[in-house]
Amino acid sequence: MDALLAIGTRKGLFLARSSGGGPYEMDPVRFANVAVHAVAIDTRDTGAGRPRVIAAIEWGHFGPSVLWSDDLGETWQEAEKPPVAFPEATGTTLAKVWQLQPSPTEPGVVWAGAEPAALFRSEDGGRTYRLMEGLWEHPTRPRWVPGGGGMCLHTVIPHATDPARIGVAVSTAGFFRSEDGGATWEPANRGIKVPFAPEGSQYPDFGQCVHKVANHPAHPERLFLQHHWGVYRSDDFGGSWTSIGDDLPSDFGFPVVMNPDNPDSAFVFPLHGDMDRTPVGHRYGVYRTDDAGDSWQALAGGLPDEPVYSSILRDAMTASPAGLFFGTRDGEVYGSRDEGESWDLIVRHLPDVFTTRAAVL
């Protein structure tokens, strides 16, 4: 099995390749000293005979942009006009692109989540994008409050079989879903608790601090959600949520990903929930459930035994048929080919890791 691992960092994009299941070999850095906030590896048929790599970068004072490569990162192309931009009538300027997500049901469609919180849609394979005005004009928007990372739309969840259905997560407005392809939206946070709110108002329609949401193509209604104060599961595409974090050493964290081979299995990375925000017990540890959240087990084989004080961001962990991977804020990337049972250090001494994505070539 040949695989590609993309690592977006504060100072460039790093691509690593594995041939025949062997170790990953690092390519030279792309976009050196440029922040790479989001990456997608589009394995659909793009006509190029190989996956398209799409990267959301921040050109410093030139601003954010999205580029694509059809030769696995050797060369890159960029639209003549800013590919993701707010219409002039909005009076808004794009701060960054937080998420790139190819559609599983619509050829050529790629979704982009942005800051300030907005959803954009591409119909040309990720070259150019248009604003989804239904979410931008949602009546609750004036009451959305930025989270610690800003007012960002950081997660896009297209339904695995129905292109009319799509969900997004906004920090700190919560999870929203559309049943008509993004024309209209409704908050979908029933059952997610906001503990600091006054008694009687701890389950609002919106205002939840959602850190990440994951879904599974074989069970399109099932979602797993990492919240600021909990881990949740939905079996009806966000219609309702059930708390599943009681068995974890901490229900605070940023990433959550699903096992591509098992819709009952998901992975989280618990952190200390106070301002420390380092791994629980100051040891790296991924936790896996195989029973949809009824129980969790720690997976740390091959990870460092010494104390660690680095953290992991919401998009720095990923799961695909190529394996399970996570990158840290001190520039280490670890990978597992056995669902987290054992880990290998892939690379160290990179810049701060923002995102990881992997695909079988």
UniProtKB/TrEMBL annotation:
<dbReference type="GO" id="GO:0010411">
    <property type="term" value="P:xyloglucan metabolic process"/>
</dbReference>
<keyword id="KW-0378">Hydrolase</keyword>
<dbReference type="GO" id="GO:0016787">
    <property type="term" value="F:hydrolase activity"/>
</dbReference>
<protein>
    <submittedName>
        <fullName>Glycosyl hydrolase</fullName>
    </submittedName>
</protein>
<dbReference type="InterPro" id="IPR015943">
    <property type="entry name" value="WD40/YVTN_repeat-like_dom_sf"/>
</dbReference>
<dbReference type="InterPro" id="IPR052025">
    <property type="entry name" value="Xyloglucanase_GH74"/>
</dbReference>
